[in-house]
Amino acid sequence: MSDQLPVPSPHPQTAALHGRLLAGENVVATVEVDLDAQGRFAQGLIALTDARLLAYEPAVGTWSDYVLSPDQSLKLSDHGGLAFLELFDRERRLARWRFTLASNPAAVRLVEAFLREQQRLAGVAVRAAEDEEAGDDFDFGEASAPPSTWVLLRLWRFARPYQGQLLLGFALMLGATGATLVSPYLTMPLMDRVLIPFQNGQAIDPGLVTLLLSGLLGAALVSWAMGWAKTYLLSLVSERIAADLRTSTFEHLLGLSLEYFGNKRTGDLMSRIGSETDRISVFLSLHALDFITDVLMLAMTSIILFSIHPGLALATLVPLPFIAWLIHLVRDRLRTGFEKIDRVWGEITNVLADTIPGIRVVKAFAQESREARRFKDANANNLQVNDRLNKTWSLFTPTVALLTEMGLLVVWGVGIWLISHQNITVGTLTAFLAYIGRFYGRLDSMSRIVSVTQKAAAGAKRIFDILDHVSNVPDPVNPQPFENVTGAISMQGVNFRYGSRSIIRSLNLDIRPGEMVGLVGHSGSGKSTLVNLICRFYDVTEGAIKVDGVDLRRVKVADYRRHIGLVLQEPFLFFGTIAENIAYGKPDATRDEIVAAARAAHAHEFILRLPHGYDSLVGERGQGLSGGERQRISIARALLIDPAILILDEATSAVDTETEKEIQRALDNLVKGRTTIAIAHRLSTLRKADRLVVMDRGEIVELGPHDELIAKQGHYWRLWEAQARRVDAEADEDGGLMVVAPNPNAHTVNA
């Protein structure tokens, strides 16, 4: 079987694009556009380099290029299911491209890359990682284009499974709306054939009155029954749509690479999945339902009004153009305003998400007042944005009410004139006014829905910003089975970049099954990045990493990571019992397996001293346990899944010497028979390593056993000597109480 990866079909103009690049010019981002300037389907291409914006125009079959300058701006917008990308300078629009929303995620990334290039050209410091550990912070971001109401149509993919219930709900809604229109119609014979003749001295016909009142009662009962059934049914459906949306968003979020989370705030993501989906649920269950009811009511009422008297019906429509113009004027302000509200609310959530988990640090440094000020400032910002929006909304609502009142006065005036000329009866005008009350009431209700619609659109946009993001560590289309792993790792010509910064360069390394390899080097040398690549938290930019001869990109991510055990410097424990935390990687583990893993990790003794043993609750992030205890539980967690490959990321650097000895004994059990890659500050962790890999600036500068590297007196020897001098200095500061053993293995290496 070939080791080459299946690659997607290249764009027809890719070769031409590379042919147009200047010497040293690099492509930063591309968008495949699928429409030409006339809106016909055609294959075009937009490419952003570090110097120009190039575009292939399919309609004329030529390339255009625009040299980047700080005066330019790039705007992304969408309307009616189409997206638009426009390039401006200070005076005019230079170019405009259109495409379907399928290309929108790539366009979002291109806009953000364009902004970064603009900052670079303007001499503004562009945020970059300072070392490989900060590389996770690199983020493509999301476009700041205002949300379009059309984004709500994308919710149909979540509504499709419930289309039968939705159709039934629509039928019930139609019936309920029709039933509410019966009562005004029956007021005409009630006025003209019963009440007015009675005032003129005629006797009341009991049968006719009974029939008309029965009709009114029947219409009310039918409207109530259908309205209740419709509201209950559609509320159930909307809750399920929102639940599916939450689940899909969270599942998609879990599938994204670490790169996505680098510049995302926890509070913001929590706000999107929580409050935004809840807002969409309320919109679907209440306001969307009301909007459809209002539209049906207006349509059916209009038909009845024109059937009663066309002239009077035309007088009813006088306020409509003014209300429509007002809605159009306010809508854009509302949708941008609600998006700002979403962002500032996310800031409030971020303060809470930062402060509550870190409350121990806050109290330790007496920073309660500072955090209170942060929350107060975020809250004040939220208040300010809401005040600006409420200023617009407070003027809009009474203006619509005024216009409808004026329309009602017009109907009264025209109706009285028609009665005076005996063109209509009093009963007709009474029925007309009853219908007008419903008509204008629904019109006012529809105008108010503009607000909640824009809120829902802003929320849906923030949700789809997550769903549209494509993982940079994708699963292959046809994954290769990955079982019976021995742990042989081969890195061939590996290169890796964080944005435009090269971190790993031309790295070649073979690790044998069961071998223990230690990674050492200065901070920023690429150790953690290399481990991240081996774990496939990121994919290599060039070259390949193979395990048992299989390229990692040919294997499903989950299938591969089942064979990896990871022990971090700061172990993360979830809220739950000790047993649940140990069994996190193997939820179906038996209690005997959990205890056996804990014994091997030297954790069994302290677990039994806890109030409820293995069923003792661990606080959030392991609060209530010492650092060494948390570390041994994480080692037991790694032991339980019996991984073929073990990653130790400075597992003993944050504990005291006695605790380190306990952890080291646990690690000795963990590394047996496994391919182990360890990053460590202390040689006590690496004393049994078969080989040490010394890294500097993303390259392997030395490779071999400890004694051999010491004898070379190269990079590793200088690291060891520097660490030895630091230990000696610490011993002198402690009054000579620290004894430095002559054995080199007693010293530590700065990793």
Please tell me about this protein's structure.
With 751 residues, this protein is an alpha+beta fold. The chain is built from 23 helices and 19 strands. The chain has a six-stranded mixed sheet, sandwiched between helices. A four-stranded antiparallel sheet has the order 1-2-3-4. It has a four-stranded antiparallel sheet with strand order 9-8-11-12, covered by helices on one side. A hairpin with a 4-residue loop joins strand 3 and strand 4. Helix 10 (320-355) packs parallel to helix 13 and helix 12 runs antiparallel to helix 13 (426-467). The longest helix is centred in the middle third of the chain and has 53 residues, at 368-420. The protein is elongated.
Task: Estimate percent helicity.
Answer: 40-55%
Distance between the ends: 39 Å
- Please give the count of helices: 23
Secondary-structure class: alpha+beta
Quote the average pLDDT: 76
Q: How is the main sheet built?
A: 6 strands, mixed
Number of strands: 19
Spatially, the strands of the biggest sheet line up as 13-16-17-10-18-19
Note the overall shape: elongated
Instruction: List low-confidence stretches.
Output: 1-9, 125-146, 734-751
Strand content: 15-25%
Question: Cα-atom Rg, whole angstroms?
Answer: 35 Å
